[in-house]
TrEMBL record:
Protein's UniProt name: Protein yippee-like
Entry annotated with the keyword Zinc: yes
Keyword Disulfide bond part of the UniProt annotation: no
Domain named Yippee: residues: 11-105
UniProt-recorded Gene Ontology molecular function terms: metal ion binding
Family listed: Belongs to the yippee family.
Lineage of origin: Eukaryota, Viridiplantae, Streptophyta, Embryophyta, Tracheophyta
UniProt keyword terms in alphabetical order: Metal-binding, Zinc
Pfam families in alphabetical order: Yippee-Mis18
Length: 120
């Protein structure tokens, strides 16, 4: 399991369910605010569906389910085939549901989609 340093200088996303570390904030390239989706260059601690028969196709793009390694919760998908790559939408990138993630902002843990503090 990969772990980032939970220090003021290192900001990253965690699985909302089990708080496994998922991605550094600099890996987040773009946020689709309307759907609370984030496009990430890279992630850690994610299981990606390897069986092509279980991949999903939408708008000619093919995606593999991507889940938290620790708790198996589905967090989003990884793009496998993208015939019309754009600056953000490219093969190998992850599209994650920000509502299923938390954010360590250097001083506290926030909900990734609202940036309101998590009470605990
Ligand atoms: Zn998890």
């Amino acid at each position: 399991m990969d772990e980032f340093d939970q220090t003021p200088d290192v900001h990253f996303f965690l699985c909302r369910e089990c708080r496994t570390h998922i991605a550094l904030t600099q890996e987040l390239l773009f946020t689709v605010l309307e759907y609370d989706l984030g496009i990430f260059r890279n992630t850690v601690n994610m299981d990606v569906e390897g069986d092509p028969r279980r991949h999903r196709i939408f708008d000619m793009r093919t995606a593999a389910d991507a889940s938290c390694t620790q708790c198996s919760r589905l967090l989003g998908c990884k793009l496998v085939v993208v015939p019309d790559e754009t600056m953000f939408v490219q093969v190998g990138r992850f599209i994650l549901d920000l509502r299923r993630l938390l954010l360590w902002d250097g001083s506290q843990i926030l909900y990734a989609h609202t940036h309101s503090p998590v009470e605990d």
